[in-house]
Design goal:
Layout: H1 2-34, H2 37-42, H3 44-52, H4 55-71, H5 74-78, H6 88-96, H7 99-115, H8 119-146, H9 161-177, H10 179-198, H11 204-228, E1 235-239, E2 243-247
Antiparallel strand pairs: 1-2
Length: 250
Amino acid sequence: MKSTFNNVIPAKAGIQKIIFWSFLFLSVNATPAMAKIPNLLSHAGGDIRYTFAYWPAILIGGGAITAGIFTTKDHSIQGNFKRRHLGKADTVAKFIGQPYVLDPVALVLFGAGELAHNEKLSVTGETLLEALLFTDAMTGILKLGFDRTRPNGGSYSFPSGHASSTFAVATVLETLYGLKAGIPAYAAASFISITRVDMNAHFVSDVVFGAALGSAIGWGVAHFHKLKNPNLFIVPTVAEGKGLSIVGMF
């Protein structure tokens, strides 16, 4: 019993150190970013406009229709997930997709870019943070509005917050950096979304609409920032009479 107690104390102390240093790193990096919060708020109009006034609005509509179709089959599909198939991977994915993980990471990237005077990193973190906050707000409103019961009996099933947040991140990265960042990001988002069904925490329709919502917001926010920063990200444009051209300022 004594040896067990002695083993627990160092482990607990180690966890406390990790938390302390993580909090310190977050605080130092986030301070410059926090000073620019008014800028984030001023971007809200552009983020909303590019999400709901362009093709992402069609994506949201398509996601709603597809989710509606799956709603009629949700319970029969969920019957295949009475036991978990992915084991501990579900728990890891659940943690990674939480707002208290994704949002601070975006804030740290934003702050690190400001500290290092790395404009590209700063804009990337800023874009991710705005997309995530926008997604969190929209997802929360819809959850309260629909108040759908989860497969496991819990509340606020529709839409899946893990799907909306991770697909928002994936779409921001794909829009800013192309497929080299988009493919692994979408693969991770898809896997995390699947684990939510495997854990019996969401129906397929919750995940489908969450993915569509997050993708639409991610594209809208990223496209808005991409157009505001043509010196940082290559912007495809149509050259009159010459087809597709690439514009970049270096």
